[in-house]
Write a structure and sequence with these properties.
By secondary structure, the chain is of the alpha/beta class. The protein contains 26 helices and 21 strands. Strand 18, helix 22 and strand 19 form a beta-alpha-beta unit. Helix 25 crosses helix 26. The protein is globular and about 70 Å long.
Length: about 775
């Protein structure tokens, strides 16, 4: 279709759409189909049939709900960012032989899951959400090439069913900003360096879509709602100038989710794209501000006024007033959600066990679609008699909690200086140099999952369930001792999820039964609803950590989820400022730390993998956020005695402001997800930004790749060279819950062997320094793959 102005205004009034929708299946059908296929229990055709049913049902449900525009290309068997990279042929060199002759879906799995001898693409949190994508890798000589067959087949199939879909594709600038340089790429190379070559493929895609009769394509540019340089914004403008100049193409919709487009908005408005989608929940702007942007009035405006990231009902009366004001300036207006609904569960009506007053305040994906449609209709016809004001939540205010948070001061966040603590901890723990450990979770066995299900359905009582757990904890301790780890964990066998487990034991939270949200691949979580003041009725972890410690002479870590991660991975209340909510959470964690200490636990790990996720998208707000995020972690941990070693676990971030914040946390040992982004950690160590003990994860725990001793030895030596032996730990980069024992056991044995190889080399150094003068393996070192 031509891009002339006459093609811009074809949709009817009451226009409504959404950027995307959940895809795991209302009963997690895709999760089960994936795992059956990966285990060899189902054929590829059976897996594809499940995916087709979920996708077709989604179109049918959205059409029946009244949406006037249906998104397409939003279903994925693993990850949509990876799908879009493959659409344009962005395949790293190490996979090219591996995928030769594979079906498209198996190509996706090869890059996402790797093989025993080939590491997968890195798993990275998407734009401050709880969703994780597989990070594409790009090199200067990458062989790009459009692969549109799967997309064209979907468009044709939708048309056979009577649906015209709008394909959704990650935009070219964000696709590259979400990528990383392929290992071995030239020094100084950045993925954006190949933008012009990638745009050739996008131009080809526009031609192919026009030939298939597609009238509109959606390009998502979520990276542009983050802080961006003038050069990056100029590249965005030039990219869409170029794409808009394609003579025969569909209309182009460019969206910016998860925040305000900032200076990228006038850049986009200056181009000849036909439509722009705005997040007007997290990036709310007044009508006057939007009207003042040159060129924006000439675009179709997709007004994202329904929150796609949280689960509270929209105030439709206030939102309608805002939409009416927008409509006076932007006559071509489409009502939509602020972002894809991938981040919320399917349907609140499936939650029969939630308190009625709370359930009435919630809107999951189906309810949000209904809100979008209702608001679009109300723009023409006004509110219906069924509209009602937002309900008042049941009182969840706790005066004792409010009084305690009000009494917190800076003294509550301070410990003895690190040097004094470190000496006491070394004396107490007596650990070897380069200690080996894991970060907490071990696989949830079939037996434990079955026992948890049997308990929920009343087939066994809690005492029988406890027996299963004790047997599993004992098995995990025996395995770790046999492997030779220096610091052990109880395996978290009693926990369904690192956030949900604690939420179910705390006042102020509500847990769902069917509120599943995709985290990555087949991994799903049920984020709890944090609606009230938070209090801890009883200790939550002491029994299981204490039992594990009774089985071994080696130290067993207590493992807790930190306050910021509890907040970030929940659907959080909006009536109380986030710092106050985080302070309430910090105080209950502080109490749990005290109880673990009283039970004799010498090492306590407070995990904060989500502290990066809540970082504001622009620098002006980041310092204030980090001040309270760091403060709440310190409040949670500063009550510990000096001889108690406090660990934390963080997701990686090469931002300088984040490495400074890591130091300010004042943890004794920081475990960092950094397996294949380890350079920034080493840089931060070498320039003394991080001065305490560190454990940069040396292999990815969420893939089937089994690292051999030599690879682990090399990565550990990089850390030793940066900081010396006395500050380094040897760990995987995350929990082992998603692995099988046959995968994790050889990996951990190789990790222990690599650490012992370095210890032996140090012992042979005549001067006893930390310089490595002989790194050859001792004759008795054995490991899988060595």
């Amino acid at each position: 279709m031509s891009s002339s102005s006459s093609s811009r205004h074809l949709e009817p009034t009451r226009a409504s759409s959404i950027p995307g929708y959940p895809r795991i299946g209302r009963r997690r059908e895709l999760k089960r189909a994936l795992e059956r296929y990966w285990h060899g229990d189902d054929t590829r055709s059976e897996l594809l049939a499940v995916g087709r049913r979920i996708r077709d049902t989604t179109w049918h449900d959205l059409h029946d709900a009244g949406l006037t525009q249906l998104p397409g290309n939003t279903f994925s068997f693993y990850d949509h960012v990876l799908d879009d990279a493959l659409l344009f042929g962005a395949i790293p060199a190490r996979f090219r032989d591996l995928i030769d002759g594979l079906a498209p879906v198996d190509t996706v799995f090869a890059l996402a899951r790797g093989r025993a001898d080939v590491p997968p693409l890195e798993l990275v949190a998407l734009q401050g959400t709880g969703y994780h994508y597989r990070q594409p890798e790009v090199s200067a000589d990458i062989a790009l090439g459009l692969r549109p067959d799967e997309l064209l087949a979907e468009i044709g199939h939708a048309r056979e069913l009577g649906y015209e879909i709008r394909p959704v594709v990650t935009g070219p600038v964000s696709l590259l900003l979400l990528s990383k340089a392929e290992p071995g790429a030239a020094v100084g190379f950045e993925p954006l360096d190949v933008l012009d070559r990638l745009l050739e493929q996008y131009e080809a895609l526009l031609g192919v879509l026009a030939g298939a009769g597609v009238t509109c394509v959606q390009f998502d540019e979520p990276c542009m709602t983050m802080e961006r340089t003038d050069v990056e914004i100029d590249r965005l403008r030039r990219a869409y100038d170029r794409l808009a100049a394609v003579l025969t193409r569909p209309r182009i919709l460019v969206t910016g989710a998860y925040g305000d487009l900032g200076d990228a908005l006038p850049a986009l408005a200056s181009t000849d794209v036909e439509a722009i989608g705005l997040d007007l929940v997290r990036g709310r702007r007044s009508t006057a501000e939007l009207a003042a942007i040159p060129g924006l009035r000439d675009k179709r405006l997709y007004a994202g006024v329904v929150d796609g990231q949280n689960v509270w009902r929209t105030d439709k009366f206030a939102t309608l007033d805002y939409l009416r004001e927008l409509k006076t300036v932007f006559t071509d207006l489409v009502v939509t959600a602020s972002c894809t609904l991938l981040h919320v569960p399917y349907d609140v009506r499936a939650e029969s066990e939630l308190p009625a007053e709370l359930a009435d305040s919630l809107a999951f994906a189906d309810q949000k679609v209904a809100e979008v449609v209702s608001l679009a209709a109300a723009l023409e016809d006004g509110p219906t008699p069924r509209w009602r004001p937002l309900p008042v939540l049941p009182s969840a205010r706790r005066e004792d909690v409010r009084a305690r948070t009000a009494g917190v001061d800076d003294d509550d966040k301070a410990r003895l200086p690190y040097a004094e603590r470190a000496a006491r901890q070394a004396q107490r723990l007596q650990l070897p140099t380069l200690p080996t450990a894991t970060l907490g979770s071990f696989p949830q066995t079939v037996q434990i999952r079955r026992a948890r299900r049997d308990l929920a359905e009343g087939r066994i009582d809690f005492e029988r369930y406890r027996e299963y757990l004790r047997e599993e904890v004992a098995s995990v301790i025996r395995l770790q001792e046999d492997i030779g780890l220096d610091v052990l964990v109880h395996g978290e066998v009693e926990r369904n999820d690192m956030v949900q487990y604690f939420a179910e034991l705390l006042d102020g939270f509500a847990a769902t039964r069917n509120g599943w949200v995709q985290s990555y691949g087949s991994r799903c979580v049920r984020p709890p609803v944090l609606y009230g003041d938070v209090a801890r009725p009883a200790p939550m972890t002491v029994e299981w950590t204490g039992y594990a410690q009774s089985l071994t002479e080696r130290p067993v870590k207590g493992v807790l989820t930190g306050p910021v991660t509890m907040l970030a991975r929940s659907f959080c209340r909006t009536d109380l400022a986030l710092p106050e909510v985080a302070t309430q959470l910090a105080l209950v964690i502080r109490d749990e730390v005290a109880d673990l200490e009283a039970a004799g636990t010498a090492i306590i790990q407070v995990d904060e993998p989500a502290i990066r996720e809540l970082l504001p998208r622009r620098g002006a707000d980041r310092r204030a956020y980090l001040d309270w995020a760091v403060g709440t972690f310190r409040l949670a941990t500063a009550g510990a005695k000096p001889e108690t070693q406090i660990h934390t676990h963080l997701s990686y971030s090469s931002l300088r402001v984040m490495t400074e914040a890591i130091e300010e946390l004042d943890a004794d040992v920081t475990n960092i997800v950094a397996t294949r982004s380890i350079d920034w950690v080493l840089d931060a160590l070498q320039d003394h930004t991080l001065t305490r003990q560190v454990a940069p994860g040396v292999y990815e725990s969420r893939s089937g790749f089994v690292p051999d001793i030599d690879l682990l030895h090399e990565r550990l030596l990089e850390g030793v060279a940066a900081v010396g032996l006395e500050r380094l730990w040897a760990v995987p980069d995350g929990g082992l819950k998603s692995r099988y024992t046959w995968q994790l056991e050889p990996s951990l044995r190789n990790l222990v062997a690599a650490a012992r190889r370095i210890r032996r080399a140090v012992a042979r150094d005549a001067r006893g320094s930390n310089r490595i003068t002989d790194t050859s393996p001792a004759p008795d070192v054995r490991g899988i793959g060595s």
